[in-house]
């Protein structure tokens, strides 16, 4: 698995919290990603007790609503793609960025594939934990997915209206 962010592979400073361990315990004391179950088990007092960056991973069936009260405390939300045809995480990312203004990292994990990367970016993802061999090879080879015209604005920040007479048409600014 490799982390792809801002157009390049980068070292991942985050570690996953093992089951039964509390944040800040054990050998890993840096930025921590925990499951929604672990996050919920901390309770309100425990969630506010650490100064280390904290993230929550939402699995496919878990709702964004569960973390909304603490969104300002989270530095990262990891959204799971359990298989190619499961697109629930697209909606979750769009809700986090568009409706709730989440400014932290939204990370795609699981079955992250080449042909979805640009669409994930447009929904609000800004980091991708990639394990798919063909996707890794394409990105390592310098290839980038390219679409230039869209029917709606995205949350990626690099788009502009294509034509003022057609408000539904958007074009990549790059």
Describe the 3D structure.
With 174 residues, the protein is of the alpha/beta class. It has one domain: TIM Barrel. It has four helices and eleven strands; from the N terminus they run ββββαββαβαβαβββ. The protein has helices at residues 36-47, 88-99, 117-123, 133-140, and strands spanning 2-5, 8-10, 15-16, 32-35, 54-58, 76-81, 105-110, 127-130, 149-150, 159-161, 170-172. An eight-stranded mixed β-sheet has the order 2-1-8-7-6-5-4-3. Strands 9-11-10 form a three-stranded antiparallel β-sheet, with no helix packed on it. Helix 3 links the parallel strand 7 and strand 8. Helix 2 runs parallel beside helix 3 (117-123). The two termini are 28 Å apart. The model has no long low-confidence stretch (mean pLDDT 84).
Query: Structural class of the secondary elements?
Result: alpha/beta
Widest sheet: strand order?
Answer: 2-1-8-7-6-5-4-3
Give, in order, the helices and strands. EEEEHEEHEHEHEEE
**How many domains, as an integer?**
1
CATH class type: Alpha Beta
Radius of gyration: 17 Å
Main pleated-sheet profile = 8 strands, mixed
In one word, what is the shape? globular
- Which strand-content bin applies to the residues? 15-25%
The percent range for helix content is 10-25%
Total number of β-strand segments?
A: 11
Q: Which fold name is given in CATH as the topology?
A: TIM Barrel
Distance between the termini: 28 Å
Q: Architecture, according to CATH?
A: Alpha-Beta Barrel
What low-confidence regions span 5 or more consecutive residues with pLDDT below 50? none
């Amino acid at each position: 698995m490799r982390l792809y962010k801002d157009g390049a592979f980068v070292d991942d400073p985050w570690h996953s919290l093992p089951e039964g361990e509390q944040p800040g315990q054990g050998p890993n004391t840096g930025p921590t990603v925990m499951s929604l179950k672990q996050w919920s088990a901390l309770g309100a007092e425990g969630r506010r007790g650490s100064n280390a960056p904290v993230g929550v991973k939402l699995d496919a069936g878990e709702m964004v609503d569960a973390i909304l009260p603490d969104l300002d405390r989270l530095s990262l939300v990891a959204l799971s793609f359990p298989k190619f045809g499961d697109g629930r995480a697209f909606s979750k990312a769009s809700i986090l960025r568009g409706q709730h203004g989440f400014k932290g990292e939204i990370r795609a994990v699981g079955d992250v594939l080449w042909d979805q990367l640009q669409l994930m970016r447009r929904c609000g993802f800004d980091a991708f934990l990639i394990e798919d061999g063909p996707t890794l090879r394409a990105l390592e080879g310098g290839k980038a997915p390219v679409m230039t015209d869209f029917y709606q604005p995205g949350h990626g920040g690099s788009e502009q209206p294509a034509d003022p007479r057609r408000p539904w048409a958007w074009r990549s600014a790059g």
